[in-house]
Design a protein that fits this description.
With 435 residues, the protein is an alpha+beta fold. It contains six helices and 27 strands.
Length: 435
């Protein structure tokens, strides 16, 4: 009998100790500080298994922004006219930007932004996107490194004209009708939970207007403030926000597209805002601080909204389910019930006149298996053909009259891999240079 009591006591003691330890882990990882000097050791111990998993995963992964080359991918070039692109890639301790002719594969000019010119933690330099550069009339260019405090203008010979290190820049850069630049920046905002726990930081995207001559900020508008003042507090502080797996990235503003001329449904100076994590496009008028229209529909986690014609806009539909990079088999089975095609990206055109959607070149997206869960840009050319950058596969395409007239890897493959493009900008002519 005494032996049973001793064994039972040990079991009860072990269970009690396990309960205390489990509570300690929960308390520490929830931001609690009641355990004093034990807080950090417990947190480190409890997260060690995930650290080991991450290390083993990294052993089999490619360097950032590298993708494996598809051996079955056949490059095609049937372009019968010049078409120019501005793209970038990483080389050792610098980013190289190249203005090239896609028809001839010739390089017209190149710029470089070196590690010595970079502002920020050195470990971030090799893994920042050299995103969405802008070519100016004097052959200078404006670039930024994604997620860092680096927006800069380089002259034709890569000398820095100006550099702004005051904001975190990300995603797109677009020129307005009055020759200013609209950029996406962000700040971290502190909010609280109910009942009160540790503070939560959420990322608030900021619409930022910049003078390209000086690099000075001339206008800023936090997206949360814009939404709340227009009666959409639910999009900022909605109940479901606390369940988002990304935690703090409520909006993910990935494109600010300036409208360059007056039309039936908009005015010159209006903006189209792409909110990936809300799967919506917002038509916003800075002049009056009014949201004129919110567009949602048959697109998911979209990027890159463009004006196609008066009253029509196009949207790069990533078709990415929730926050998963690739749809699971269960996602696919459920999607079949709603006639949703997953793991194929496409272009969605929205008509302001009757609020209808269309999907041009959808058959070619399916035939070519074009899918990029993140990023992705497109440009409708004046002859009606479509340029597509499938960012995360490293491939670019031009579709015309239901056929592929151009496809290749944006950056030259080497050793079985290639670096994916970083939101290439397309020019049908270069007549504007030196005007």
């Amino acid at each position: 009998m005494e032996k049973i009591v001793i064994v039972s006591s040990k079991i009860i003691l072990i269970i009690a100790l396990l309960n205390i330890f489990a509570w300690s882990v929960y308390h520490v990882n929830d931001g609690g500080k009641k355990l004093g000097f034990l807080t950090q050791p417990i947190q480190a111990f409890s997260t060690f298994p995930q650290t080991v998993v991450n290390v083993f995963r990294s052993l089999d992964s490619l360097p950032p922004y590298q993708v494996r080359v598809d051996d079955d991918f056949e490059e095609i070039n049937r372009l019968d006219h010049d078409l120019f692109s501005l793209n970038a890639h990483f080389e050792s301790n610098k980013y190289v930007y190249e203005l090239s002719n896609l028809k001839t594969d010739s390089i017209l000019n190149s710029w470089s932004f070196t590690k010595e010119q970079y502002y920020g933690p050195s470990e971030w330099f090799p893994i920042a996107y050299p995103q969405n550069p802008i070519l100016l009339k004097d052959m200078s260019m404006i670039g930024m490194l994604y997620g860092t405090k680096n927006l800069f203008r380089l002259d034709k010979s890569s000398n820095i004209i100006w550099q702004d290190t005051s904001r975190y820049y990300h995603h797109s850069l677009n020129m307005s009708h009055d020759n200013y630049i609209w950029a996406s920046t962000y700040v971290n905002i502190i909010t609280t939970r109910s009942p009160p726990k540790k503070p939560i930081y959420f990322r608030d995207d900021v619409l930022t207007k910049i003078d390209p001559q000086t690099g000075k900020i001339v206008f800023e508008k936090p997206l949360s403030e814009l939404l709340i003042s227009n009666g959409y507090i639910n999009l900022v502080h909605g109940y479901a926000n606390q369940e988002e797996s990304d935690g703090v990235d409520l909006f993910h503003l990935n494109d600010i597209e300036p409208i360059l001329s007056n039309g039936k449904f908009w005015m010159q100076g209006d903006l189209l805002l792409s909110l990936r994590n809300r799967s919506m496009i917002i038509h916003y008028r800075p002049e009056t601080d009014k949201i004129l229209r919110i567009i949602s529909g048959p697109f998911l986690a979209q990027h890159d909204v463009d004006v196609v014609s008066d009253g029509k806009i196009s949207i790069f539909n990533n078709n990415r389910v929730a926050t998963n990079a690739l749809a699971s088999q269960n996602d696919i089975e459920n999607a079949k019930k709603t006639n949703l095609t997953l793991n194929i990206s496409n272009i969605v055109v929205y008509d302001f006149l009757d609020s209808t959607f269309s999907t041009p070149f959808l058959d070619l997206f399916e035939t070519e298996n074009v899918y990029t869960p993140r990023q992705g840009v497109h440009t409708f050319l004046k002859n009606g053909s479509l340029f597509v950058e499938s960012t995360e596969t490293g491939k670019i395409y031009i579709f015309d009259d239901n056929k592929v007239i151009f496809k290749k890897y944006a950056n030259k493959p080497s050793g079985g891999t290639t670096e994916h493009p970083h939101w290439m900008t397309i020019h049908e002519h270069l007549n504007f240079l030196n005007q």
